[in-house]
Amino acid sequence: RIYCVGRNYAAHAREMGGDPNREPPFFFTKPADAVVPCPKTTTTGDSDVVSVPYPLATEDLHHEIELVVAIGQGGVRIEVHQAMHHIYGFAVGVDLTRRDLQAVAKQLARPWDSAKAFDHSAPVSSIVPLTELLDTSTEAVHSDTNHWIRDLTSDTTEMGLSPRTKSPSIWILVNGEERQRGSLEQMTWSVPEIISILSQQFHLQPGDLIFTGTPAGVGPLQKGDLVQGGVDGLNEIQFNIS
């Protein structure tokens, strides 16, 4: 299953006309077959880039770059301080959104399924296992993320960040132009809190993915666009819109 957190960055909540205050998070879902594996290739050439088809029934497809949590151990009513034990790893995802259909759904107070849960709507990078991020031998590769993850497991602060930690950046480029950039510390609800709250409503299962929200700067995509995104220390995502 794919769970998504809505408006988990204050600046994005504002740009969507929402309340940026720390209100309880809300969730929506995408079908599991919406996932499109999109690892960033190391070779050149368009044939090496995964193609994501422009969806039906929209003229306003938008990108939303997100940190993705992969659940490794299932559970229900998970305590915040135990949440990290349920994580298999982290990835980078793009919550593709039919913004015009979402606007209509909001206006009519209807569900967002047609706007969010369509075919190929969840491109995801390859997953970095949590054990690798916590391994000190990978420090050179995952430096900021290593510290950030260790702080999440140490309960140093409410948000899981200590003063010494530089929070990883999250970003997306479209045709080489930066569209979104934020910091994971800008999340209204931290990863352990999201897992805990979600597990009060659903029995989480191994293999579940959680999209944790997007920073400000969401915008349109057109056929032919090359999309590249990342979170510092994680595997990047890359695909084009066909």
Q: What do you see in this structure?
A:
This protein has 242 residues and is of the alpha+beta class. It has a single domain, classed as Fumarylacetoacetase-like, C-terminal domain (Fumarylacetoacetate hydrolase, domain 2), CATH 3.90.850.10. Helix content is 18%, strand content 29%. The strands form 4 sheets. Strands 2-1-13-6-7-10 form a 6-stranded mixed sheet. Strand 11 and strand 12 form a beta hairpin. The longest helix has 12 residues. The two termini are 26 Å apart. About 4% of the residues have low confidence.
Task: For the structure shown, list the relevant keywords.
6 helices, 242 residues, five-stranded mixed β-sheet, six-stranded mixed β-sheet, Fumarylacetoacetate hydrolase, domain 2, alpha+beta
Secondary structure layout plus pairing:
Blueprint: E1 2-6, H1 10-15, E2 26-30, E3 35-37, E4 50-52, E5 61-63, E6 65-71, E7 87-94, E8 97-98, H2 99-107, H3 113-116, E9 122-124, E10 128-129, H4 130-134, H5 143-154, E11 169-174, E12 177-183, H6 191-198, E13 209-211, E14 219-220, E15 226-231, E16 237-241
Parallel strand pairs: 1-13, 3-9, 4-16
Antiparallel strand pairs: 1-2, 5-8, 5-14, 6-7, 6-13, 7-10, 11-12, 11-15, 15-16
Pfam families: FAA_hydrolase (PF01557)
Keywords: Metal-binding
GO molecular function: acetylpyruvate hydrolase activity; metal ion binding
